Amino acid sequence: MKEVHLPKADFVTSIVVMTLGGGALVLSWMMPTFREVGAHRYSAPGVVPGFLGVVLLLLGGVLLVRSIRSGGYRLGVTFEGLRAFFVSASIARFFAALFLSMVYVLLLGEVNYFFLTLVYILTFILAYELWLEKVPRSRGKIWAFAVGEAIVVAAAISLTFRYLFLVRLP
Amino acid sequence: MLEGLGIFAGELVKFLTPRLLFDVLWSTQLGIIVGMLPGLTATMGVALMTTLTYKFEPSHAILVLICMYVGSIFGGSRTAILINIPGTPANAATTVDGNPLAKQGRAGEAMGLATTASFLGSAFGTLMLAIFTPVIGNIALEFHSFEYFWLAIFGVTICGTLTGAKDPLKGWISGFFGLLVAMVGMEGMHAYSRFSFGSVNLAGGIQLLPAMIGIFGFSEVLMVMKQPAAQVVSASVERVLPRFREILKYWRTILRSGVIGTIIGAVPGVGEDIGAWVSYDFARRASKEKEKFGKGSVEGLIAAETGNNAAVGGAVIPVLSLAVPGSAPAAVLLGAMLIHGVRPGPLLMVESPQFIYQVVCMFLLATCAMFVLGLALVRSFVKLLSIPREMLMPAVFALCVIGSYALSGKLFDVTVMAVFGIIGYAMKEMDYPVAPAMLGIILGDLLDNNLRRSLVLTNGSLIPFFTRPISLILFLAILLTVLGRIEPVRRLVGKAFGRSAQ
User: In the list B18, B56, B101, B136, which could disulfide-bond B61, CB 3.0-4.6 Å?
Assistant: First the structure.
C-alpha cells in the first residue's frame, strides 16, 4: 500500500510526541531508585517509563525530520483559513457534539442523573434536527420524537442500572 | 485429542439449557443490530455489554460478550451491502463487492451469501481456536521474563505495522504511547505512584475499560456526528437463502480465507478488518474471474466475510493462550475476563483447561445463532438502518458514561473515558491507528514487570534477551517487521535482489 503523509499534522504531532517522550524521560530520571532500602538498581520504577520515553523521543524525531523534509513546518495558518475552518458545517457538528457531551460529563454528580440524561438527549436531538441538520419534518414531530426518546432512554438507563445492576447513580 | 473432545462435549451439554440458549439468541441478535448500525462498532458493543453484564456469572457474561462479538462482526455486512458503509471496520472489504451486488438488485442474495460465508468463517475460526489454543498455551509455558518482554514489544510493533498500513511509524508511536499510558499509577515492585502528580485517582492507574470505551465509543460518536448524515438507499430484499451449488463452487476461496483470517486474527492487535482485506486480496489474485472483483463478485464477497469472521476465533487464540488480544474487541473480551476473575494466559491450560473448551462451545453457539438469525428476520431488521444518527448517538454516549461509571462507581472513570475519547478522536483525525494504543495499555504491565525482572536477574546484562531461542525468534520478528517498512532498507533489499522495491 502506498504510504500517505500529512506533513503539517505530522509536524505538530511529532512535537507533541517528542514533548511527551522527553517529559517521560525527565520524570523517570527524577523517580526514586529505592537503593537505600537495598533494592536492585534495575528494579527502579523509572526504568521502563524512561525506556519508553527514549523510544517515543526517537520515533517523534523521525516523524519530525520526515515532516520537515515534506515542508510540514510551513503551517500557513492565516486568519481566513481559520475562519473557513471554524464556519464549516462539519466542524459545527463536531463542536456541538463535543460541547453537549462535555457539559453532560461536567454536570454529572451535580444534577439528578435521570433529569440530566433526559435534558442531554433532548438537547442533542433538537440541536441537530432543528439547527444543524434542518431535518425536513414538522417541528411538532421533531419535538415529540425527541421528548419521547429522551424520556424512554433516560428512564431505561436509570432504572436498569439503579435496580437491576444495583449501581448508585451519580 | 479424545480427552479434549470429551471435555468439549461435556461443556456443550451444560450450555444447552433454555435460559442460556435464550441468552445466546438475544445477545447475538443485539450484536447483529450493533454491527448493522453505522457508528456502533463491535468493540463499542462488547465494551458497553461488559458494563451491562458485570453482575452476571462469569461464564454467563462471557457467553453474552462472545455472542455480541460474533454477531456484530457479521452484522456490519448488512450495512456494507445495503448502503455501502461498513457497519464495523471489519466489513470495509465487504462493501467492494457487496454493494454492487445490491445495486444489481441482488441485495437478498448478497446478504444470504454474506451470512453463509460468515458462518463458515466463524466455524473455521472456532475449530482453529479449539486446536491451537492448547498448543500455543503449552509453548507459552516455556516463556520467561525475557520472552514476555519481547512479546509485549512484538505486539505493539506488529499491530502498529499492520493497522498503520498507510504509515507504520504512526502505528508504532501509537503503540508506545499506549505502553506509556499504562505506566501511570502505582507500580508493582515498590508501590511507587508514577506520573500521578499527587492525584489519588491517577495513583490508582488508568482503568482499561473506561479508556477503551472512550477510544472506541466516545471518539466514534464524535466522528459520526462530524460526518454528514448517511443516505439510506431503499433496496428490495428478495431471495436470501443462498444456493448450495454457489457456495460449493468457491470452497477453495472459503478455505483459504478461513486460514488467512484465523492467522491474521491471531496476530496481536491486528483484527478482523485486516483479516478481511488480506483474504479479499488473496482471493482476487487467485481468482479465475478477476474482472468481476469490485463490480459485484460473489467470490470477493465470500472471501471478505469468511476472512473477517474467521479472524474472530483467531483473535481469541492469543487471548486465552498468552493473555494478549488479537483484535480490539478481543481486548475488551480479555478485560471482561479479568473483571470476572478469569486469568487467561499460559497457566490457563494448567489451572482450568475446561475454560478453553467452554469458550469454544460459546463460539459454536454464537456461530449457529448468527447463521439462523442472519437468514431470518432480514426484512424487519433492515428497517433499523433508517434510525437517524442524531437520535442514536446521544443514547450511545449516555451508555458510555454510565458504563464507565458503573464498574467502580467513580466519576474519575467518566473523566478518563471523556479524555481518551478526545485523544482517540484526535488520533483518528491525524491518521494514527488507535488499536496499537489500546494494545499498549493492555501490555504495559507485562512489559514493565518483565523488563525489570529480567534486568535484575541478569544484573543489567542484555545478552540473554538475544541468546534464548524464543527471545531470539521474537527479536528477529520485530527487527524484520520494522526494517521491512523502512524505505531505504526496502530499496537496498530490492537492489540486492535485482529489482526495485515496490
Answer: B56
